Structures are given as structure tokens and as C-alpha cells.
Predict the structure.
Amino acid sequence: MISSLLWFLLVLCVVVFVHELGHYLIARWNGAKVEVFSIGFGRELFGVTDRAGTRWRFSLIPLGGYVRFPNPPEQREDGSEAEPGPDESLQAHAPIRRIAILAAGPGANFLFAVVVFFALFLAFGKAGTSNTVEQVLPDSAAASAGILPGDRILSIDGQTVTRAQEIRDAVSPYPGIPLTFVIERDGRVTELDVTPVMVDWTDPLGTVHQVGRVGVAIARPEREPASVIEAARDAFGETWYLTSSVLEAFGEILTGRRSTDELGGPVMIAQVSGDFAEQGLLPLFGFIAFLSVNLGIINLFPIPMLDGGQIVVAVAELASGRRLSERFMYWFQMTGLVTVGGLMLFVLANDLSRPSVVNFVSGLFQ
């Protein structure tokens, strides 16, 4: 349990540091002063102040981080500044520069995922493509449709598939709905209608999902050596695949096609971090890249207090040519505080409802 918590802190600190470093670097490049660069929230545990006046610190609650900019100078009633000196606050910069600073955090997370995948492909090779059916389960949907071992699944309902994960992703959301499989057999291409059967699937966290399955096992591909160019190309491709998959999952949750039970919070991340660490460097760093992509996407959501919400404000100011009123900004931030707080409570409740997570938490006190 202690090992899982330590891995959780390491994984979370890495992706948060990358995110905040993106904000920091672009802010400094644009001449904005950064007062604090913090990993964690609350009281400072230890830190150091650099020559530019930025306080780099670790704080008590390691569930995120932030960069803090100076507050705008206070104004007298006549409109003049109460304290002389330049306005080094984030709000003092033009909207287009603020957008760049705000978008730099999520951008750094996506770039970090690319770098991680690039390093993994160079070190361990790239995963070979495999869409060849190795086994067809008896009395399954695939057997009924006429799929045979040795068939290559080329596409499902117009979506090209090259690996087992893509086949699962194309089938799982559609139990009971006929899908068109394009397969290659003995050099000939043909179409088959396959209707996935609804089954209960228990994920590694103990949550039961109702998903579609057709009853095929795909041949496991061998990892292949990758050149620098191939590693770079596949790193961008893998990051794009993760990003599109996460966005699709969020879209399905919002439309009710997937359950909100799949959303997880810090307790789930703590458990999963330990599980992946036990499996080796390749799964662990793959998980770090996945978490980094998730953090980048979530922070781009147009929710007040998140980067996406502040970008919306900057875009509105850019379009209108004037600052939004203080009253509007107050209620905008309060709405964000309530929304983010509610989401955190919701995912925490989800975490504590999972049997495996409950066992994990109870183990911390044994």
C-alpha cells in the first residue's frame, strides 16, 4: 500500500510539474512575472526562491499544483494606482498572450506524452500491428456470422482497425447492434454482418460494465525495432489515438452512452499507479503518458477556474475589445469553484464505491 502511494505521488507530481512548467515558461517568455510555482496545495513544506523572484515549492496537499501571478495593482477611487510600479499581473497582458500562457499547460502535457512514447518506442520497439483472428469462440457472434481463424479484420462499420484495442473499441459500445465487418480471407475481401452480444465485463478496478463482444481472440503482435523517424511518427500517432479515445469516452458519458462510474479520482489513480509500477517500466510510463493526456484534456474544458474557462474569458475580451466586469468575473469564478468542487466529490464517491478501491483504502489502515 505504501509503495502504491509513493508511486502515485511520483506519477502525479511528474504530470503536474510538466503542466505548470508549460504555463511558467510561456509566461516568462511573454514577460509575465511568476510569484509562486507550487507542486501541491496548502502550507509550504520546503522551497527555494530563484533570481527572478519565483518561489519554487512543495506544498502539503500533493493533489495538483499551480503557478501564481501577481495581483493587479489596487486602484484608488479616482482610478489611479494605489501602489506605484508596473502591472506584472496576468491580466495586464493582451488577451492573445494570456491565451498562449493558459494553453501552454495542456500543450505541455500533450508534448510530454509524445516525448514519453518516443522514448519508449526507441527503447522497447513499437507494437506491431495485428488484426488477424487467432481463435473464434464456439457459439459466439463471430462464429454465427462466419468469421474463421486466420481472417484479417480490416474495418468495422467503416472504421479501419489494425490492432486488438481498436477492435474492442469499435465493438464494445454496440451490444445488440449489427456491425459490418470487412475481412480478408485467402486474399479475398468480403463483408459480414456481426451482432455483438452483451456481456458483463469487470475492469481492473472491480467495476462491472455491460459491453458488446463478438467472441474472437486476436493474435498477439511482437514488438518491432523502431528507427528515430518511426518512433517520432508513432509517438505522435499514439498521443493522437489516446486523445481522440479520451474525448470520445467523455462524449459518450455526456450523451449517456457510457456510465459515469468510469470516472475516477485520486484514490483510483493511487491504486492504478502501484499496479502499473509492478508490471514494469513500459506499462508504468505508458500510464504516465495516458494520465498526462487526460490532464491536458480536462484542463481545456470550458469550466471556470480551469485553463479552458480562463481561455474562454480571454477570447471574449479579445472579441469585444474590452475587459469583462468585475461582477461577472466574481460569479464566473464562484461557478467554477462550485463546479470543480462538485466534480471532485463525485469522482471521490466513485472511487470509494469500487470494491477493489475500498479494499485498497482499508489496507492502508491495517
